[in-house]
Amino acid sequence: MAQPRPPRLHDNGGRDFDAKQKRKIAEIYQVLNNEPVDIAPLRRMAISEGGLLVDEIRCKVWPKLLNVNIDDLLPTPEEELRENSKDYQQVLLDVRRSLRRFPPDMPDEQREGLQEELIDCILQVLQRNPQLHYYQGYHDIVVTFLLVVGERVAATLVEKLSTHHLRDFMDPTMDNTKHILNYLMPIIDQVNPDLHDFMQRAEVGTIFALSWLITWFGHVLSDFRHVVRLYDFFLACHPLMPIYFAAVIVLHRASEVLACDCDMASVHHLLSQIPQDLPYETLISRAGDLFVQFPPSKLAQEAAQQQAERTAASTFKDFELASAQQRPDTILRQRFRERLRAEESAKSLLATKPRTNRFVKLAVMGLTVALGAAALAVVKSALEWAPKFELQIFP
Amino acid sequence: MAADVESSLELSLSSSYVGPLPPPRSRILKIIVIGDSNVGKTCLTYRFCAGSFPKRTEATIGVDFRERAVDIDEERIKIQLWDTAGQERFRKSMVQHYYRNVHAVVFVYDMTNIASFHSLPLWIEECKQHLLTNDIPRILVGNKCDLRNAIQVPTDVAQKFADTHGMPLFETSAKNPNDNDHVEAIFMTLAHKLKSHKSLMLSQLPDNTIHLEPASKPTMTCWC
Ligand SMILES: Nc1nc2c(ncn2[C@@H]2O[C@H](COP(=O)(O)OP(=O)(O)O)[C@@H](O)[C@H]2O)c(=O)[nH]1
Ligand SMILES: [Mg+2]
Questions:
Q1: For chain A, what percent of residues have pLDDT higher than 70?
Q2: B38-74: per-residue pLDDT in tens?
Q3: What keywords tag this UniProt record (chain A) (predicted)?
Q4: Mutate to test the pocket of ligand 1, among B43, B47, B123, B175 (most ligand atoms within 8 A of CB)
Q5: Following DSSP, what letter does each residue of B65-103 receive, concatenated?
């Protein structure tokens, strides 16, 4: 019989990595064991290299990041859930076609059971929140939660997520989603103006990034480990972080894009095929870095200009305000007022806050030290809005 | 992830040409495919571009793009198919951009789903709003004709509808292996018509996009 050998790729690097990982796991458990749990270090660890590492930890930390009390879960859905839902047909079609989201070696029977749970989970959240509208791609988000934390917790987490991070995607129309997509080109412009101009000339638009944004990349990445790693990151960050991450991917592929024919089809085609071997940790760090250097408040005006008709010119006025704006009740009330005040707020956007030294410093650190420093910077910025975010959730 | 679905696309975008002259870029035929969710738009476009029925498809989010180069009368033409999301919310603010410069529109309904047929007037209306001219050739495709026992849209009803709207009707199946050339024939007929129709001459502009000159309503033979 062969000697049992722990699986290792590279002896030294592997051991280092293992040790680092073990240390991080221990650290996370330590934080979790101290009541009341301190969310800040959890955020930091969700962002930093490797994220939350294993699903067992995700089950414990994701609820904390969303401020969900897992002793207070959504009830099991009622019998008539499906009959009473106007979205049932669409959800059914999309869930049936979502085979790729499940582990390939999962027995059919188990997968089918999970698909049923997925349908119920989606419909229950929609039923309890009539202000939310289903979109194709929402199922890609919900399935990720379902596979990691199980049905009841998933429903509860997804409800919180839907009324906050995903709120803008779930409007009756996609105008606000479009508006968020309008942040993409200004971010690219800040870092690589040539690439920006090339893409503008190609008139490629931003729809290639739509599925990335509204599914948090769940629709386009085939390796589930990458998906959950990104979810760790996004759950710990500002709701606009996915668009920064989208920009980072485009920037990462700049040379490919520039080598492409300068037309809509070629560029759209190239970009919508996401490479599966992206250097995720580096990109995450870079996205955090860009967020700190060019916070949404800085980009808001350019994003608004991207829009021919400025429907919701000021969804995100400031990255600190944004968390407040993601609140379901304020959003609904403010949306109307915001429209009235569109002019006014557009004016206030002209006076963007000057970048503080600390931001510059952290950003530079992030750029040079690559991992770690940038993650730290993101945490700092996340923490600036996190306390408000948490307060608002727990009145 | 749509890796399987998209893997066919390589065949077209790389135009490697070795020679003293810059490569003559092929003209492009841009076709947009619209219709309700689940009628088989993704399967049809995949079938035409990759030559087979996809093992599985996923909900299309936003707009997907597939392409295939064909030779028509000794001229190489790139047929670009823009496959769109069926859910209404995507159409309203998202898909608009992709109607730009289209040369033809393919409306698809599911022959086994009467609701998808009843949605057609909405699609037609919406298409009118997005397109600058009325003369863009349009065809109507009833898909899934292989499911013979489940047909809900009778051919004569569909034909009447198609006549009213001045479109040729094709009943087909993206799936049926015996229908091997039918899907192909639909798109090829469209390409031929677009290319040969005198008043639909595709004129090449310096920037390599092609524009359609005003044209009269196309008359095409029905295949069903
Ligand atoms: N039997 C049969 N099924 C089809 C045919 N075309 C598509 N389908 C199935 O219909 C479903 C929806 O197809 P899809 O192409 O994703 O529809 P889309 O939403 O319009 O893009 C899938 O389950 C396909 O397998 C067909 O010609 N015959
Ligand atoms: Mg589709």
A1: 74
A2: 999 999 999 999 989 998 889 999 899 999 999 988 8
A3: GTPase activation, Membrane, Transmembrane, Transmembrane helix
A4: B43
A5: EEEEEEEETTEEEEEEEEEE--SHHHHHHTGGGGGTT-S
From the list B89, B98, B100, the residue facing A135 with the nearest CB is B89
B172 CB within 6 A, ligand 1: no
Nearest residue of B to residue A211 by CA position? B61
Strand pairing class (B104-110; B63-72) = unpaired
pLDDT in tens, B176-208: 877 567 898 899 988 888 876 543 434 344 344
Residues 6+ apart with CB under 8 A from A387: none
Determine the 3-state secondary structure of B106 from DSSP: strand
Residue B222 has pLDDT above 50, yes or no: no
Cα-flanking dihedrals φ and ψ of residue A249, to 5°? -65, -45
Give residues with Cβ within 8 angstroms of A315, minimum separation 6: A168, A176, A179, A180, A325, A338
Q: What tokens were used for A84?
A: 């009473």
- The pTM is what? 0.79
Q: Has residue A376 got a pLDDT over 80? A: no
**Distance between CA B81 and CA B99 in Å, rounded?**
12
Digit-coded pLDDT (tens) for B98-114: 888 889 999 999 999 99
**CB B86 near ligand 1, within 6 Å:** yes
Our CA angle for A381, A387, A392, nearest 5°, is 130
